[in-house]
Amino acid sequence: MKFRDLDLSDNPVNAEHRELGIPPIEESTLHPGAHPILRIAMWLAIFMLLGAVIYLVTRLFSENGVLGAEQLVLETLQSKIFWTAVAVGLLAQVIDGALGMAYGITSTSFLLATGVSPAVASASVHIAEVFTTGVSGVSHVKLGNVNKSLFLRLLLPGIAGAVLGAFLLSSIDGKILKPYISVYLLLMGIYIISKVFRKLKKATHAPKHVAKLALFGGFVDSVGGGGWGPVVTTTLVGSGHDPRATIGTVNFAEFFLTFSSAIAFAVLVGEGPWPIVAGLVLGGLFAAPFAAYLCKRLHARTLLIMVGTLISLVSIYNLYKSFLA
């Protein structure tokens, strides 16, 4: 899960991460954020998370009753798609925990390969991410990693892009969109690999075109099932802006656009993705130790090549299946 407390010490791993323009490694620390607007946003995020949990539990029992809810849980635990989602969530969170990005892209790529429609795959990933990005974003505020000005510039355009993407994805036949989504994910895989050969520049000015970047990032995040981090974070950090403030701010803004797109998907997508959501969340819960081990044993460049290649190959496989269908 995306519980990020950034370790900004000057060690060899972080030096490599800075050179590649990807997030630092993580460490447990805790101290409060400062700005009143960020405090309000933080508490709003907490209440939204609590509201989401209460709503889901209430809906489960009101629609099925106690016995029906127990039966539904048993059926979910026995379903193949649930355990597939557990495996996908585990793999995706190991990658995200080690690199600080690519959870959504990895999850969506593998869910599409199992035959899930683009709308259901993206809906499942975004509903699962509501909880992970919420906790992660609150942690960033309390750690002082969030820039108020950048957060406000990202927030509304990102939400608008996410809702537009959810509407487009749910209103068009998944079979028509699937090849295009696979092409997008293939390009994102290649983009991740390309970071190995890029040098991090030093910024000499404030971030430009943030609203356009957020609109585009939110849109492709919903349509492609992921991409907010690789598009927005890597663009800002890769252009030389402070990694700590950029990563924390983009991550906190991600909760609000993920929450918005999850609501849009819940309204627009008729098929219930709850077994997939439960599997993604459960798989992510067990991923942290593996992510830490992978981060310790493998260089960031090696991980980027592995992840980019993996996403690219799965996307090529999805394209192959689309053309045969």
Write the layout of secondary structure elements.
Layout: H1 12-20, H2 36-78, H3 80-99, H4 103-113, H5 118-142, H6 148-171, H7 174-194, H8 210-224, H9 228-238, H10 243-268, H11 274-285, H12 288-297, H13 300-324
Helix pairs in contact: 2-5, 3-4, 3-11, 3-12, 4-5, 4-13, 5-10, 5-11, 6-8, 6-10, 7-13, 8-9, 9-10
Biggest sheet details: none
**What is the number of helices?**
13
User: What does the average pLDDT come to?
Assistant: 78
Percent strand equals: under 5%
Q: Which structural class should the secondary elements be placed in?
A: mainly alpha
Distance from N terminus to C terminus (CA atoms, Å) equals 34 Å
- Summarize the amount of helix as a percent range: over 70%
Give the radius of gyration. Answer: 19 Å
The total strand number stands at: 0
What is the number of domains?
1
Question: Which structural traits does this protein have?
Answer:
13 helices, mainly alpha, 0% strand, 325 residues, single chain, 78% helix
